[in-house]
Specification:
homodimer, alpha/beta, Rossmann fold, formyl-coa transferase, domain 3, three-stranded antiparallel beta sheet, 18 helices, elongated, CoA-Trfase_fam_III (chains A, B), transferase (chains A, B), Carnitine dehydratase (chains A, B), CoA-Trfase_III_dom3_sf (chains A, B)
Amino acid sequence: MPSLSFPTAGSLDGIRVIDLTRVISGPFCTQMLGDHGADVIKVEPPRRGDVVRAQGNIVEGLSWYFAQFNRNKRSLTLDLRSESGKALLWRLLEEADVLVENFRPGVLARMGLDDTTLRERFPRLVVGRINGFGSEGPYRDRPAYDFIAQAMSGFMSVNGTSDGEPMRAAPPLSDMVASQNLAFGLCAALVRRERTGRGEIVETALTNGLIGMMGYLAAEYFATDQVPARTGNDHPMVYPYGLFQASDGDVAIAPSNDAMVARLLGALDQLELLEDERFADNRRRMIHREALRDRLNAVIGTRSVAEWIAHLNEAGVPCGRVHSLRDTFADPQVQAQQMRLELDQGKHGRVPTTGFPVKMSEAPAAVYRHVPALGEHTREILTQLGIDETELQRLQDEGVV
Amino acid sequence: MPSLSFPTAGSLDGIRVIDLTRVISGPFCTQMLGDHGADVIKVEPPRRGDVVRAQGNIVEGLSWYFAQFNRNKRSLTLDLRSESGKALLWRLLEEADVLVENFRPGVLARMGLDDTTLRERFPRLVVGRINGFGSEGPYRDRPAYDFIAQAMSGFMSVNGTSDGEPMRAAPPLSDMVASQNLAFGLCAALVRRERTGRGEIVETALTNGLIGMMGYLAAEYFATDQVPARTGNDHPMVYPYGLFQASDGDVAIAPSNDAMVARLLGALDQLELLEDERFADNRRRMIHREALRDRLNAVIGTRSVAEWIAHLNEAGVPCGRVHSLRDTFADPQVQAQQMRLELDQGKHGRVPTTGFPVKMSEAPAAVYRHVPALGEHTREILTQLGIDETELQRLQDEGVV
């Protein structure tokens, strides 16, 4: 099978990905691969496709939620429950570098692709797998969902205010983090394949990914045996840090060490506060946090957010405005970084999505392909596989594609 | 320079990383590379080292916060402001595959390593860079910090409750996400290097990474021009979903589609609710959310969390307990997945850290090296570079190492 109809300029040019995933966790991962030049073939059930095609706001016949996760892919419909569909999947895998799936553990094996078969029949194939809890352990068969992973990873226990309940983050963090981990793992496995000639199975799980994000909160729990409290916008270990009230809104300020605290106080013309023994070092500032907060707000309340942001940045103090998503995408820096992209979706119009967070100097991410209609590339891909018109017609008649 | 004193079994075995990063965003990325077998040389300023060595709880002389981000690395002290230090860095780069830095834009160039020099003198080198806002654009020189990126990315605007203020997440999400993106990008660049023989510069930024996580929230904003509201534990688009009150605590429940909602109601023996026209489909359930919440809590309140978790999982409904970090690390699934590791740190004792979220079948992540003391491997690495005892003594006397 020839590669893409055109070579991409991306770092992963020449890598073909067979993508059996749906919803968020898998498609976000394979989109990262496609953004960087891989040839991603999204395999979807005939007629209905990925369920996300029907979710979120549908504009001019296209779900913009679906668009957010499925640019830079080709769509092939294939009924993986049929024998003909399974046979075609095997033919695809013979010419693929990567297979990605986010079924529950065991589903792929029931399609005939258990781990032993994958390794023996497709020794160079790198297999990526995302699930809820991992494919070993007592919960392996439980149904998973981002919210459950946020709850069980401990993330929710530290997200929120001290007087509120444990709280989820609005983005499906566990899906997104597991996707990023898988994209990394797949590329690491491709690096190894260059050395050894052999693929391997790479697995990430929603809960495991978020546990890996607990970072210093986990370290503090391990060190003290005390579970971290929810502290809202206050940092559990440093002060000053947080939202302060300027005359026309909040400003986020986060000096990260004593030198920056001195810069902040200098910029506020409040250096004498350091001579107040309550505020002389971070430990004492944590104890007298409310008193210091009041003192700082008394000064910060005298000028506008814009004035403070200009003034404090000038002084080298990390600070910024709390942006709504409208503010974010209108921001000149965000625009300079092209973090809002527009896809040309033909009859569906121009569709905005978020941009590429990984910038490459020689082989930058790009929009190589629009978001595919369901089965848009079925004929193209099957023809490249060597399927003739008669067989294609038969597959269509049987509802396999 | 020979590789590691022992080969690792990891996917990135044979890849040498020169790591100039400090604090969280860089060290988390390079630890991912080290976990998977790369030879990571952490370059630290003589005498003080990475500032995180002195932060968080220090147990038996070791910061467990530092340990959380610095296993699987060797430590080399080097004064990069001195001419001898810069010369040694060049020698290291001649035998390296990857350089990673998280200075502010321009700092590396002022050390003589501007982009042109890097590409010309080290054409095979892959350079990784993490900063706050990206190295182009009006904010490139602003000081950055996780909290500011959480504010400016729009993340805080959707995190929190409708009656509360925009809120940061407790883990430094922007640092962690940019690290994961960079780890992916570096490996993608290594894949390309196999094909082209040339390295490239890979950059991620704290704000860009979090913007990339806005996913369907960004899509909904683009489609409606309405900024998403903060909805706490409620999902903005589906119901039932959220925390429900069992007799002895909360249970998180998240059926993801109509079929699962029917399974949930069946398991609660409340299938007749679907005949109530207020609850017949998701759109109407969103409108009558509070009424349905009350009906569900009336049933869920009659039994314990443990009973519901067993019963609902049996029925195939995603659900779980809200875990504290103590619950998380005590959980049998988390233990089966080895998401709590213990490092043998010799005189510092056994130090727990979070485990490996990326599982590989052939070349699994492993603890190849303990968390290094400051400069622990200076002599070993310089000897491998061909520095003799006389020169080493001179470098020590001059405070360069």
